[in-house]
Specification:
Shape: globular
Number of domains: 1
Number of strands: 0
Radius of gyration: 19 Å
Order of helices and strands: HHHHHHHHH
Largest sheet: none
Number of helices: 9
Distance between the termini: 42 Å
Helix content: over 70%
C-alpha cells in the first residue's frame, strides 16, 4: 500500500497553499479515490485541512473523475474497431440488463468498491442517458463521500493522541479491507458478465 503513504506525505507537504492542496486532493481522487478520502478526513480532524476545502475538493475530484469514466466509454464507442460492439449481439444481453437497471446500478456502484470503473465506462460505451447519469452520481457521491469522510474524521479525532505509525496502520487495514471487497466485487462482476455472454451464445 505504498500509494497510501505517498498520498499522506504529498498532502502534508502542500498544506500551506490552499489552491495547490485542493488540486492535489482532486488529482489524488482521480487515482486513489477511497484512500484519498480517508487521508483527507484524518488530516481534517487534525486541523491540517479545513472541512469546506476538504469536502469541496473531494466532491469535485470524484464527480469529474466519474464524468471522465463515462466519456472514456463514449470515446471507445466511436472508435472504428470498438464501436461496432455497441449494438453487437454479443453484448446485447448485458446492455439490456444495464439499461433496465440503469439508475440503480450506477447508484449502487458508488457504494461498492471495484465496480465504478466497469460500470461507469459501460454507461458511456452504450451511450446511456448522460443527464440521468450525472444526477445519479452526484447524489450517490454526496452520500458515500460524506459518509467515508465522516468516518475518517471521527477516526482521526478519536486517535489524535495515538502514535503515528499505529494510527496510520489501522487506517491502512481499513483500506485493505476495502481493497479486498473491491477485488471480490470485480471478480463477481466479471463472472456475471461471462454468464450473460455464455447465455447469449447458447
Amino acid at each position: 500500500m505504498f500509494p497510501f503513504f505517498f498520498l499522506s506525505h504529498l498532502l502534508g507537504g502542500v498544506i500551506n497553499n490552499t489552491a495547490i492542496l485542493s488540486l492535489t486532493i482532486i488529482l489524488g481522487v482521480f487515482i486513489f479515490e477511497d484512500p484519498t478520502t480517508v487521508i483527507v478526513g484524518v488530516l481534517a480532524a487534525d486541523g491540517i485541512i479545513s472541512i469546506p476545502v476538504a469536502l469541496l475538493s473531494l466532491y469535485t475530484g470524484i464527480i469529474v473523475g466519474d464524468f471522465g469514466l463515462y466519456f472514456l466509454g463514449w470515446l471507445a464507442s466511436i472508435h472504428p474497431r470498438l464501436g461496432r460492439y455497441v449494438d453487437h449481439d454479443l453484448v446485447a444481453p448485458f446492455r439490456v440488463w444495464l439499461e433496465s437497471r440503469f439508475v440503480l446500478t450506477v447508484f449502487s456502484a458508488r457504494f461498492v468498491p471495484g465496480l465504478r470503473l466497469p460500470t461507469f465506462t459501460a454507461c458511456g460505451f452504450f451511450r446511456l442517458p448522460f443527464l440521468s447519469f450525472v444526477l445519479t452520481i452526484i447524489t450517490a457521491a454526496s452520500i458515500w463521500t460524506t459518509f467515508l469522510f465522516s468516518v475518517s474524521y471521527w477516526f482521526g479525532s478519536f486517535t489524535s493522541a495515538w502514535i503515528g505509525p499505529v494510527r496510520w496502520s489501522i487506517a491502512l487495514i481499513f483500506l485493505l479491507v476495502l481493497f479486498l471487497i473491491a477485488r471480490h466485487n470485480l471478480l463477481a462482476y466479471r463472472a456475471r458478465k461471462n454468464r450473460v455472454q455464455e447465455n447469449c451464445n447458447n
